[in-house]
Amino acid sequence: MLLRQKYPLTWHKKDFSIKIFCSIPNIATGILIKAGKAYLVVDPGDGILRDLNKDIGTKNILSISNAFITHGHHDHVGGIWTLLTYMRVMNKKSPLSIHYPAGCVEIESIYHAFHKVYSKSIPYEIKLKTIKDEKSIRSNGVTIKPFPVVHKEYLHDGITTKQVPALGYKFTYARMNICYGGDTAYCTELVRNAKNSDLAIIEAGHDEETPDDMHMTMNEAASIGKSAKEYFLVHVPE
Ligand SMILES: [Zn+2]
Questions:
Q1: Long-range pairs for 117-125 at CB < 8 Å and ≥24 separation?
Q2: Chain mean position to CA 66
């Protein structure tokens, strides 16, 4: 069953839910998962603080202990600085772990700059968690399984492309699961992980029927989505 996209997109089953505030290519992504009482943020792009503030409020924002990053493109990480600074100003005490693919220089650079600017006034611990393999991560009853995806970017000549460090994640809680592919071309890892999941969130960022190494066409994305119980197609150009 395809769930149509009109942001925010929400899905829930028992006490496991996801809200996609936004997923527009080159503009912003922002995703919040709630599992029991725990909140996880995924791909905090520009606007994430505004959306979180409206949705869950300061106290719950400060309770967030984990952020998951699929890759370092600006439309997926643009809100990190804001979020880190807000947590500083609001005096967050509990640690925040940021999970990101190994080699994602954007996250490391943002973290180092933040640390340099505010080294004497960060009240909470920021833990950078580099993901180097497909080992599952467990936190607050949620199992998060990373998997590699195919996502490229153009070099300055506008022709040559290179693979960027990029992951998808499968979030499992109380035997329910959500598969989020991040940005990816059609790839077997995503096909495998999306299959039979309770919800698959699949990007359909390519506007023509000519597949490339960066994004999927609607048809490719839908073919993967249909293997899940329910799915959202996201990251469609507006
Ligand atoms: Zn991207």
A1: 118/85, 118/88, 121/88, 122/88, 123/88, 123/91, 123/92, 123/93, 124/87, 124/88, 124/92, 124/93, 124/94, 124/95, 124/96, 125/95, 125/96
A2: 11
| Angle at 45 (CA atoms; ends 159, 215), nearest 5 degrees | 35
- Domains along the sequence of the chain with CATH: 2-234 (3.60.15.10)
What pLDDT score was predicted for residue 3? 55
- pTM listed for this prediction: 0.95
**Interatomic CA distance for residues 99 and 115, integer angstroms:** 17
Distance from the alpha carbon of residue 120 to the mean position of ligand 1, in angstroms = 33
Tell me phi and psi for residue 128, to 5 degrees: -85, 120
Taking the centre of ligand 1 as the mean of its atom positions, its distance from the CA of residue 205, in whole angstroms, is: 9
Contact status, residue 44 vs residue 30, Cβ threshold 8 Å: yes
Give 177: exposed, middle or buried? Use CB within 10 Å, 0-12, 13-18, 19+.
buried
Ligand 1 centroid, distance to 59 Cα (angstroms): 31
pLDDT band for position 237 (cuts 50, 70, 90) = confident
- In Å, how far from its chain's centre is CA 180? 7
Using the predicted structure, report yes or no on whether residue 210 has a pLDDT greater than 80: no
- 37-49 per-position pLDDT tens digit: 999 999 999 999 9
